[in-house]
User: Fold LuxR family two component transcriptional regulator from Amycolatopsis cihanbeyliensis.
Amino acid sequence: MSEPITVVLAEDQGMVLGAFASLLDLQPDIEVVATAADGDEALAAVDRHRPDVLLTDIEMPGRSGLDLAAELNRRGSGVRVLIVTTFARGGYLRRAMEADVAGYVLKDAPVGDLVTALRRVHAGERVVAPELAMAAWDSADPLTERERELLGVVLDGATNTEIATRLRLADGTVRNYLSSAMAKLGARNRTEAARIARDRGWL
Assistant:
């Protein structure tokens, strides 16, 4: 009998985490070696267990699933990343592909689809839910990297002066970047621009 597929499971909702772990433990060829409730804990578990696959949500405390994928990609890790999320956002999928994520599926998919996706990812395939692939190409991100960075800080509730201090920019430069982002997104103010960018998966 071949070795089981080892999995680290990362999900910040306890009930969902437990359900996923129970589901995967029923599979004779899959072994959940660790679970994590936030991104930092997940990265530590990956470092400790060296699993075949990291199955992770996107939005979690600490590092997001996309942050985890980007970090593992930066390290040249052999761990395959499968994202399972409720968010059918084209921006998220584009960022996942840039981080070399091996799979991206939705939580509301049939249970069997999740298990099949995990096996396919382990076998070296790339798996993307069809509706997500369509959304990605219908939703191009118009923002620059710096504009995304500033809008991310806006979501934290920072004022323009606080953003300037934190990022070591002039107040006028911050205003210019945010004005540009607002214009691109058709937003009335910086808070609305940040919300639009977040909802489209660009932050």
